[in-house]
């Protein structure tokens, strides 16, 4: 079982399957042409299956045509079945263990959105807190949902 398979199983109680990697194609590039547009990835790979897509490539998002793109850790459909997470920003200047800790939190956060959870505003340690583009928030969070977020999943 892979690290993320174990994390998903431990946290949510779901078994997950690891599928072979698929390449990100040039048509998925963001406007900057230097990173991939996460919403294009979601659109291309959206499925009836629950999918957690993990890439080492840098991903970005743009909320509207008038806003600039910005780098992100992950993106999802809420509610939905598909989410994407990138290790690119999670691994900067840290050990492999720290990167895996961050990856676990971001992946479980995005799956939480797939399950319908919004961002949490009640507890800064809750994994459903919005990262606001900072890795400091991800590092502050625990692999944990506050009582309010847990209640929404029931």
From TrEMBL:
<keyword id="KW-0645">Protease</keyword>
<keyword id="KW-0482">Metalloprotease</keyword>
<protein>
    <submittedName>
        <fullName>Matrixin family metalloprotease</fullName>
        <ecNumber>3.4.24.-</ecNumber>
    </submittedName>
</protein>
<dbReference type="InterPro" id="IPR012962">
    <property type="entry name" value="Pept_M54_archaemetzincn"/>
</dbReference>
<keyword id="KW-0378">Hydrolase</keyword>
<dbReference type="Pfam" id="PF07998">
    <property type="entry name" value="Peptidase_M54"/>
</dbReference>
<dbReference type="InterPro" id="IPR024079">
    <property type="entry name" value="MetalloPept_cat_dom_sf"/>
</dbReference>
<dbReference type="GO" id="GO:0008237">
    <property type="term" value="F:metallopeptidase activity"/>
</dbReference>
<keyword id="KW-0862">Zinc</keyword>
<keyword id="KW-0479">Metal-binding</keyword>
